[in-house]
Specification:
Blueprint (H helix, E strand, L loop, with lengths): L1 H7 L24 E5 L2 E8 L5 E7 L4 E5 L7 H11 L4 E5 L4 H4 L10 H11 L4 E4 L7 H11 L6 E3 L13
Parallel strand pairs: 4-5, 5-6, 6-7
Antiparallel strand pairs: 1-2, 2-3, 3-4
Length: 172
């Protein structure tokens, strides 16, 4: 992973190399499973994407956040895994790149739609849904329309937006 990031941040792609970043960096090779990182328990599961993708479940004393993007529905094993990963989470951030009517033309691309996000949140018992991975061809008006329609099925829902901050709390 470190090598991949170094190459991605090298000229001509990015003006500042990874070694010039002031952040303290740790790189871990992860596979499906559970590890403890300080006060955070991290569970990972493979998602359904052509190039591979992992979903993450972060558990703390404050609550549980699940990040599951780049996941295409329709494979029984992966469908079960993503619901297990999201089970009872306080916040589920889920791939909703396509509109349901676009999805049929995009099968095999490794992404989902907002109706499947509703299925995952209701079947997993997660408390809040954040629709994520918006299609670049969808403008703000389109996303607002999706949120309005999706709230008819699940009211504790919002769309991810640039600069958004999410507070995770197990308290109702």
């Amino acid at each position: 992973m470190k090598r991949v990031l170094e190459e991605q941040m090298a000229a001509p792609y990015f003006p500042v190399g990874l070694t010039e970043m002031r952040a303290h960096q740790n790189f871990y090779d992860l596979d499906e499973g559970r590890i403890q990182l300080g006060d955070v328990s991290l569970q990972t599961m493979w998602l359904n994407h052509p190039q591979g993708c992992m979903g993450f479940r972060l558990e703390t004393k404050e609550g549980v956040l699940v990040y599951a993007t780049d996941n295409e529905p329709g494979d029984a094993l992966f469908d079960k895994s993503v619901r297990k990963l999201a089970a009872g989470a306080d916040v589920l951030i889920y791939d909703a790149q396509y509109l349901p009517e676009e999805y049929e033309r995009k099968r095999g691309w490794g992404h989902s739609h907002w109706r499947e996000a509703i299925n995952v949140v209701t079947e997993s018992g997660a408390k809040e849904l954040v629709l994520f991975h918006h299609d670049p061809d969808h403008d703000d008006a389109c996303i607002d329309k999706v949120v309005k329609e999706a709230r008819n099925y699940y009211p504790r829902l919002r769309a991810a937006a640039e600069g958004m901050q999410i507070e995770v709390s197990a308290k109702p």
